[in-house]
Amino acid sequence: MTATPLLEVEDLRVRFHTDSRTVEAVRGISFALGREKLGIVGESGSGKSQTGRAILRLTPPSAEVTARRLAFDGIDLLAATPRAMRRIRGARISMVMQDPKFSLNPVMTVGEQIAEAHRVHRRAGRREAREKALEMLDAVRIRDPRRVYDLYPHEVSGGMGQRVMIAMMLVPDPDLLIADEPTSALDVTVQMQVLAILDDLVSRRGMGLIFISHDLDLVASFCDRVLVMYGGQIVETCRGGALHEASHPYTRGLLAALPQVDRPPRDLPVIARDPAWLLPLPPEGRP
Amino acid sequence: MIEVRDLEVGFGTGNDLIRAVRGVSFRVGEGESFALVGESGSGKSTVLRAISGLNPDWSGAIAVAGEPQGPRRSRAFHKHLQMVFQDPYGSLHPRHTVDRILAEPVAIHRLGEADRRIERALADVGLGQGFRYRYPHQLSGGQRQRVAIARALILEPRVLLLDEPTSALDVSVQAEILNLLRRLRAERGLTFLLVTHNLAVVNQMCERLAVMKGGEIVEEMTAGDLREGRTRHPYTAQLLRASRGYSRAAAAAVLDA
Lengths: 287, 257
Fold this sequence. Notes:
The complex is a heterodimer of chains A (287) and B (257). Chain A is an alpha/beta fold and 287 residues long. Chain A has helices at residues 48-55, 82-88, 100-103, 110-122, 126-139, 145-149, 158-170, 188-205, 216-222, 249-257; strands at 7-17, 22-33, 37-41, 63-66, 69-72, 75-76, 93-96, 176-180, 208-213, 225-230, 233-239. In chain A, the strands form 2 sheets. Chain A has a 6-stranded mixed beta sheet, with helices on both faces. In chain A, strands 1, 2, 4, 5 and 6 form a 5-stranded antiparallel beta sheet that branches. Chain B has 257 residues and is an alpha/beta fold. Chain B has one domain (2-256): Rossmann fold, CATH 3.40.50.300. Chain B has 11 helices and 10 strands. Chain B has helices at 44-52, 75-80, 88-91, 98-108, 114-124, 141-153, 171-188, 199-205, 223-228, 234-243, 248-256; strands at 2-11, 18-28, 33-37, 59-64, 67-68, 81-84, 159-163, 191-196, 208-213, 216-222. In chain B, the strands form 2 sheets. Chain B has a 6-stranded mixed beta sheet with strand order 6-7-8-3-9-10, sandwiched between helices. In chain B, strands 2-1-4-5 form a 4-stranded antiparallel beta sheet, covered by helices on one side. In chain B, helix 4 packs across helix 5 (114-124), helix 5 packs across helix 6 (141-153) and helix 6 runs parallel beside helix 7 (171-188). The longest helix of chain B is centred in the C-terminal third of the chain and has 18 residues, at 171-188. Chain B is globular and about 55 Å long. The two termini of chain B are 36 Å apart. Classes of the chains: A alpha/beta (287), B alpha/beta (257). Chain A binds chain B through residues 43-44, 141, 158, 187-193, 195-196, 199, 214, 216-218, 220-222, 253-254, 257-265, 267-271, and chain B through 39-40, 141, 170-172, 174-176, 178-179, 182, 197-205, 223, 226-229, 238-240, 242-248, 250-252, 254-255, 257.
């Protein structure tokens, strides 16, 4: 890893307070991110999505976010003013959510939305923004950018909508992209295309990518490094290609529970959850 | 058990007609488990809905247990054929207790002994009696899908139509539900018709499958062919490669298609 990581996270905690109790969704996680593809895998409630949101300070007001250190490019994100955060969000760190249907403005053409992102973050003129938007549509492999530019979100398919979202998030040329289940709503073949685009962006532009997903096989094959989350903690960190050599019983249990396409069917082993997995992990150095 | 011949389903009329299913034919033997595989818009769910009677506008021939079916289905038909949907959050009435959800089909079919049947149905899907008076929002996703399966099984049907029954569930919960379905099928000699986009789930659950694309079946094969990678149609090969995870080669193959 390089001397100054793009993102440093130390002892990050996210707590939700309600009248009757406090739920800790993220319980003291630490990691550092360089210009690489980092996967965060886990099941519902593991805290993976709240981790992504906490980095961008997008957690709801009822949540309390604390960390010993949460820094992006040396900037302390927890101390940043709302105004400073707005300069970071979108322009330097952007986020792609699972479903484009809920993230795109339904009454604005997709091209204008991408152009707007460029104008806002790069203070560009209309003509330049339009050119840039068309260029981005082409970069996410949309065949006829000029035609698609004038379409409204309801006129594009899910796969195209997600590529439009990615184009919009990438047009300000961010240093870090947080993608929360970006391909889960897509067909496998479209999923491959979207992943290839993200892969290119990381290798060509040197962008950092946090890829949050429940799909172990996908993350293992796509990411350089994988954090496995369970009950708000990182229970294991491994190289993407080596996920199948994982040692934590939870990770092993998840892998074993996946049906396989190339082996005869058998009863799938069900994960026997050990309460000890939820005990606080000893503080450790960065993975 | 299920025989479909030259099935056509269209939506809209005139120039706006979309032929969602184009001349689909297949048969599923008694006790067999068969999968329809495809991506969004391939027509796989539309075929299932036509068989179940949820979509009355179709042409061609559909026979279930040797009985030719028309657009409307009899009550006896639904006694023998039940369906489990993808989203257990959407398919259970939010303001009905599990007890009421399970009592309804028993009442509609005038089977009697509701109490005993409900108890047994809950036990069959691995839910304790403590779940009986809960509401869907008090259950986890996996527990809800178990209730949906219990509701289908309480009529003691011979055929289950399964529409992406585990794609909304976590991996560990998916394993539990797939195991449950396999066990129930073995115990009761059920016939399964499964719709899914997940080839690994097909291999786990079915003996044969048909791959659909653009409303047509492009290939029919056995699960053994699937395991060994013996695909004939390039589209099937592409799906299979994509299901093994991300690689530059898999992505490039898609772009060329």
